[in-house]
Amino acid sequence: MDTAVSFGSVTRSFGATLALDDVSFTVPAGQVAALLGPNGAGKTTAISLMLGLIRPDRGQVTVFGRPPRQAAELDGIGAMLQSTTLVSGVTVRELVRLFAAFHPRRRPVDEVLREAGVDEVAHRRVETLSGGYRRRVMLAVALVGDPRLLFLDEPTTGMDALSRQSFWKQIRSLARDGRTAVFATHDLEEAGAVAQRVVVLHRGRIVGDGTPEEIRGRVGERVLRFRVADPPPQGTLEGLAGVVRVERDGAWYRITSRDGDATVRQLIAQGIPVRDLEIAGASMEEAFTRLTKEEGRG
Amino acid sequence: MRGLMALTGFEIVRMVRNARFVFFSVALPLGFYLIFASIYGRYSVGGVGMTVYDMVSMGAFAGLSAALGPVATRVAAERAGGFTALLRVSPLRPGLYLVAKYAAALAAAAPGILLVMAAARLVHGVALGPAQWIEVFAWLWLGVLPFAALGLLLGYLLDGESSYVGAMAAYFFLAFAGGLWVPLPVLPRGFAAVGRLLPSYHYAALAWGVVGGARRPLEHAAVMLGYLALFGILAAWRYRVDGQRGLA
């Protein structure tokens, strides 16, 4: 299979900050891949490199086997960047038409406007649109060059739940046409729901790379908090399914579990009189830090 | 070429729709000309009647207005809004962004200059030979390029609201100290000496020479080219540096 994106031992720093540290991965053509990581993980730097906006200090980045800028011209690369304000004084159609003029393989503007869901606001000035609509205008701009590869940098920021859903439905259908999509996100749920492949970045290093299920198994920890009047015998809680860690503060317990559902089931089945039970996802920062440690050991 | 034409057209459309632009680069110079020429029309500067002298001054003022402020504030806003990043990502050849800004500044400057010249002819009966009309227009028109370059540079050095304030400060300073509002010979000597160093003075002086003022076209053109090279190279350098930040 064709390789859409390839990173070979890429290192890049900005001044004293090491943004990417010896990063290697490839994205096969036709895949929807997520770059997952907290803020400052290096996702945007990785996307800047794939777009050829910046060069690596060491290592090599290729897109469809070529330098990224060449690929942008020959293969078509579309990008949705994080910024949302764009320009003022022009209509949606005028903006999309402008970018159509830059692309050798441009698609009909009206078709793209329809596809991105902005045909009804095509005559409106870009600056009068809501954040969600602006994101879709960005999608139209990204699609107008008939790209084989799409880069989406935190694309659903500012969208409500419904627009998110329809947005991702659309990206999946684009992928079914054989396009490749790489998107950056700090949301594990989003990465898991949409991507076939998740590359986890933390502090400039790859700390995980696999299917969403694999990654979720490793970072999708749950935290259970509850109160017990009579403390259960030592070791009971530690022995429950999925438990990684048990912390106690007076009558309050905090259990970190790799499989929250199983832990809760056993907790109840064993008749431990828990009260005020709360279940929450472990913070992403926590999960990433743990992944980083695991990687260090492995 | 298609990309450059599209981007230039896009720029022009946005300028024409901007009320601030139309006010400063068309209405204000024209209004000033009509007022100045009516009040001071009987006087002359260095042998040039004020109706002609001010036609050149206000034509230059129109060109300065069209190029400097709009370019500076636009570049700053487009960097902040992510538009420039989007252009860099597109297959548009790098650098054409700057070329389109120069082309748009030329297009934007023409109406204001032409209107002032038309008012001089129609309202104040200014009579020049055909070659003189063309030459005056050509100098005033091409002379906007150094100011477009300065606008680009300011757009890269300043951000958002500060780009507006900075461009306005540069604009009023260049217009006043360059002798566009009050002729330099009328200003205090020290002031006039500073004014003669500015691109805005040499800009207008090129065209004053055509209508009877001291004729030193080589000197003025050389100074203008020097400023164009200075600002243009610095702006191109900032454009490169700006691109090296990636999307961060």
Secondary structure blueprint with pairings:
The complex is a heterodimer of chains A (298) and B (248).
Chain A: E1 3-14, E2 17-28, E3 32-36, H1 43-50, E4 58-63, H2 68-76, E5 77-80, H3 92-102, H4 109-116, H5 131-143, E6 149-153, H6 161-176, E7 180-185, H7 188-194, E8 197-202, E9 205-210, H8 212-219, E10 222-227, E11 243-249, E12 252-257, H9 260-269, E13 275-281, H10 284-297
Parallel strand pairs in A: 3-7, 3-8, 5-6, 6-7
Antiparallel strand pairs in A: 1-2, 1-4, 8-9, 10-12, 10-13, 11-12
Chain B: H1 2-16, H2 19-40, E1 44-45, E2 48-49, H3 50-81, H4 83-89, H5 96-122, H6 130-142, H7 145-157, H8 160-177, H9 189-195, H10 199-210, H11 217-243
Antiparallel strand pairs in B: 1-2
Helix pairs in contact in B: 1-5, 2-3, 2-5, 3-5, 3-6, 3-7, 3-8, 3-10, 5-6, 5-7, 6-10, 7-11, 10-11
Question: Could you characterize what this model shows?
Answer:
The complex is a heterodimer of chains A (298) and B (248). Chain A has 298 residues and is α/β, with parallel strands linked by helices. Chain A folds into two domains: 215 residues, P-loop containing nucleotide triphosphate hydrolases (Rossmann fold, 3-Layer(aba) Sandwich), CATH 3.40.50; 61 residues, Alpha-Beta Plaits. Chain A has a six-stranded mixed β-sheet with strand order 5-6-7-3-8-9, with helices on both faces. In chain A, 42% of the residues are buried. The model of chain A has no long low-confidence stretch (mean pLDDT 87). Chain B is 78% helix and 2% strand. In chain B, helix 3 packs antiparallel against helix 5, helix 3 runs parallel beside helix 7 and helix 3 packs antiparallel against helix 10. Chain B has 248 residues and is an all-alpha fold. In chain B, strands 1-2 form a two-stranded antiparallel ribbon. Classes of the chains: A alpha/beta (298), B mainly alpha (248). At the A-B interface, helix 1 and helix 3 of A face helix 1, helix 3 and helix 4 of B.
